[in-house]
Amino acid sequence: MTVPPSSTDQSSPDDTPALPTHLEVDGVRLKLAKPHVGVARWIGQDEVLQQLLACWISLDQTDLPLTPRLVGAPGVGKTQLGIAAAMAHERPLFIYQCTADTRPEDLLVTPVLSQDGKIAYHASPLVTAMLVGGVCILDEGNRMNEKSWASLAPLFDNRRYVESIVAGITIDANPSFRAAVTMNQDESTFEIPDYIMSRLQPTLPVGFPNKQDEMAILQYHLPFAEPEMLAMTVEFLQRSHSLKLEFSPRDGINLLRYALKRISQDPKHPLSRDQAWQEALKHCLGEDAMDLEQMSQRRRRTLGGDAVPLGLADLFFDPDDPMHPDLDEVDDNEDEDADF
Ligand SMILES: Nc1ncnc2c1ncn2[C@@H]1O[C@H](COP(=O)(O)OP(=O)(O)OP(=O)(O)O)[C@@H](O)[C@H]1O
Ligand SMILES: [Mg+2]
C-alpha cells in the first residue's frame, strides 16, 4: 500500500512544494518529521556524486533503486555528499543520525504522550521519507546495533516496507523513496551483519580531495580567509594525505576558522599569521600534528607493532609495567639501535 501525499495541516514555506505534516496509515495518524533545509554544494570528485545518483535511477517500473554505502575517513565529506546528491535528485531530504542507542522504534514510529493524555505517533525521518517519497540519509549507520538494522531488512530488499510494532502497522515505501547510508571507519562502530550489508550495495568510497579541490572546499566554507592562510592549510592537508594520515577537510576548516578568529581578536597587536596558524594546529589537531613525518612514522610503527605476538609475560604484566621481564630487553635493544 502506498500512502497518497494528501493530508491535514499543510504548511507552505515560500515556493517549495508543501509537505504534509501528518499522514494516516491504516487508521493510525502519524506526525511526520521535518525535512532537512539548507544548501550543500559538493565540490570536486564528481565521479562519486554520479555513482550515488546512478544508484537512485529507476530504469523501468519494475526496477528498484539501490541503497549504497558511502564509506571513508571521518570528515572526508560523506554526509555532505549525501545532502548534495539529494538536492541534485530534487527530492526532500531527511537525515537520520544513527547512534549506538538507536532502537528499532526510534528508526520507525515512536509513541509520544500528548498534552490531552492521548498517544501521538511520530514518524521518524526515515519513515517520513518513505511516506512522502523523499531521500533518507542514514548517517553513520554502523553506529547502530544489529537489532535496529534487522527492522530495516524488508525495506532494503524488494519488499520495500517496514513493520512498526508499536503502531501496529505496515508502512510501504513510496516508489520515489531513495536512501543511502554513510559509514565511518573508526573503532567505535558495530560490525553490521552480512545479510544487511548485502542489501546496502554498492560501496562508494569517498577519498580525500586533490589539492585544487581542497582549496575550493576551504574557500567555499571560509570565503573571507586570506589566500596565505588557505595555502598553508591546503599544504598541510595534502602533506597529511600523502602520508596516509587521516586529517580531513573538516579538520582544515576547523583549524583555519580558529586561526582567523585569533588573528581578528586584537587589531592593535595582531598575532602573526604563522603564529596563529601554528597555535590553531596544536589546539585543533593536537601536538602530534605539528610534525607530520614523525606522526606518520609512529603510526607505521604502531601498526607494525600490533602484529608482534604476545609472550607469556604479557598475560601477567602491562607492556609499560616496570616488572615486565621483557622491558629491559626492549630498552637494551633500543640503546643498541641508537648506537648505529
Ligand atoms: N567535496 C566537498 N565539497 C564541499 N564541502 C566538503 C566537501 N568535502 C568535505 N566538505 C566539508 O567538510 C566537512 C566535513 O564533511 P562531512 O561532515 O560531510 O564529513 P563526513 O565524512 O560525513 O564525516 P563523519 O564521518 O565524521 O560523519 C563539512 O563541513 C563539509 O561541508
Ligand atoms: Mg557524516
From TrEMBL:
Biased amino acid composition, Acidic residues: 328-340
Region described as Disordered: 1-20, 317-340
A molecular-function term among this protein's GO annotations: ATP binding
Pfam family membership, one: AAA_5
SUPFAM superfamilies: P-loop containing nucleoside triphosphate hydrolases
Residues of the ATPase dynein-related AAA domain: 70-199
Protein name as it appears in the record: Denitrification regulatory protein NirQ
Organism: Stieleria bergensis
Lineage: Bacteria, Pseudomonadati, Planctomycetota, Planctomycetia, Pirellulales
Gene: nirQ_2
